[in-house]
Amino acid sequence: MFYSAGYDSPVGKISLCSDKENLVGLWLEGQKYFGNTVCGEIAPCEDPEIFGPVRAWLDRYFAGERPAPAELPLAPSGGTFRQEVWKLLCEIPYGQTVTYGGIAKQLGNPSAQAVGGAVGHNPISIIIPCHRVVGSSGSLTGYAGGLDKKIWLLKHEGADMTGLFVPKK
Question: Are residues 86 and 148 in the same domain?
Fold first, then answer.
């Protein structure tokens, strides 16, 4: 059984999902792949024991603090490769960006596209900071929550936006 609750943030409504012990999902409203890693019944739940720490983490983040992903019990569902990518995402410092190719090199050179697939399917947005990954040319591509939100999050974290751009697709 899984439990869901909402959170109102500066980037819009966020949906939270827990297995009662761990956060298994955090999706921005309208995000691609919303809920695709949760296999089972989901019931609404406002229990502060389940979602209180996540809401407190998000409150701190949106207030400009820099809480660590490791402060929360996270359990994103995905295969070994995706888990490795998501672990590396948690190591990207606030206000910094890395490229898909850079992550691929850290993992022994799988394709940047394979890394992009794992980044794009991250089920715990913001906390597992997939918004900090950019294309090798500086392209702000690949954010399932929307490029406007990726830009907002990067600016909120104080990232240097010089050389970063929205692709003209």
Answer: yes
Task: Verify that 100 and 51 share a domain, yes or no.
Answer: no
Claim to verify: residue 67 and residue 84 sit in the same structural domain: no
CA distance 113 to 17: 28
Give the structural domain span for 138: 80-156
**41 in a domain, yes or no?**
yes
Q: What is the pLDDT along the chain (169 residues), one digit of tens a residue?
A: 999 999 999 999 999 999 999 999 999 987 766 666 677 788 899 787 889 999 999 999 999 999 999 999 999 999 999 999 999 999 999 999 999 999 999 999 889 999 999 999 999 999 999 999 999 999 998 788 889 999 999 999 999 999 999 988 7
Residues 6+ apart with CB under 8 A from 88: 103, 106, 107
Instruction: Pull the structure tokens for residue 59.
Output: 């409150």
Which residue out of 39, 45, 90, 130 is catalytically annotated? Answer: 130
Sign of CA dihedral 125, 127, 142, 29: positive
Q: Is 45 a catalytic residue?
A: no
| Residue 164 lies inside a defined structural domain of this protein | no
Q: Which two tokens stand for residue 70?
A: 């490791």
Query: Is 0.85 surpassed by the pTM of this model?
Result: yes
CB 130, CB 117: distance < 8 Å: no
